Amino acid sequence: MTPVFNGQPAIIRTERGLAIAGTRITLYQLMDYIHAGYPPHLIRHQFYISDEQFEAAMSYIEANRAEVEAEYQTVLKEAEEIRQYWEERNRNLLDIIAKMPPPPGKEAAWEKLQTEKARLTQSPNQFQIQNKPR
Fold first, then answer.
1. What's the 3-state SS for the chain?
2. Residue 129: which pLDDT band, with cuts at 50, 70 and 90?
3. Measured between alpha carbons, how far is 35 from 113 in angstroms, rounded to an integer?
4. What is the mean pLDDT of residues 77-86?
């Protein structure tokens, strides 16, 4: 059963997938935060939705966990394929940009940026750990 809000379905299927009615927020966006371990009150506030909309979305996810999870995994896979496509397509341009000299007068900032990039390249998980949701 689909949760109802003000007599209308609270969760609808759009061309973007399952979404909270009256918003552009998909359930897959909520799933990102659920999988990251965010507490429910922070998820709700992240999207500026009402308590009723949030409860309807969470109820729908729980009632249809297998379906929503399967669709979420498909969305993640498609997003990764798109990211890889554009990364490959722009690889040459990114290489050219990386070899460009610093803008005049910005040498110190440029050096600091290069040092930070090198540090992150040496320990890529450090960035993820520092920015892990609390």
1. CCCEECCEECEEEECCEEEECCCCCEHHHHHHHHHCCCCHHHHHHHHCCCHHHHHHHHHHHHHCHHHHHHHHHHHHHHHHHHHHHHHHHHHHHHHHHHCCCCCCCCHHHHHHHHHHHHHHHHCHHHHHHHCCCC
2. very low
3. 31
4. 96
